[in-house]
Hints:
Blueprint: E1 4-7, E2 10-13, E3 18-24, E4 34-39, E5 46-51, E6 57-59, E7 67-72, E8 77-82, E9 91-97, E10 102-103, E11 107-112
Parallel strand pairs: 2-11
Antiparallel strand pairs: 1-3, 3-8, 4-5, 4-9, 5-6, 7-8, 9-10, 9-11
Amino acid sequence: QVQLVESGGGLVQAGGSLRLSCAASGSIFRTNLVAWYRQAPGKQRELVAHISTSGFTTYADSVQGRVTISRDNAKNTVYLQMNNLKPEDTGIYYCTVVSQGYWGQGTQVTISS
Length: 113
């Protein structure tokens, strides 16, 4: 059973930065697209970014230019570097290998104004 474990969330002021990490228990990231989603209170879960096996990245318009997704296959870890954070970035952030149906438990990100 593959497990995904997110970390790095927290409470920061607007304009600050966070780096989220998602560690997999196996090497599933090497052969699959990995995505970060987030869910704000009272809202649907939405895609933040994803990265392909070849390193091609895609970002939501709302985070374009402020967020960078990257992967370290040797460490079975995917990262989400978030800069210039805004209150509307608040939510629970999840990493996922959608094609395999694996989701992490999420990490809380709270941005104060």
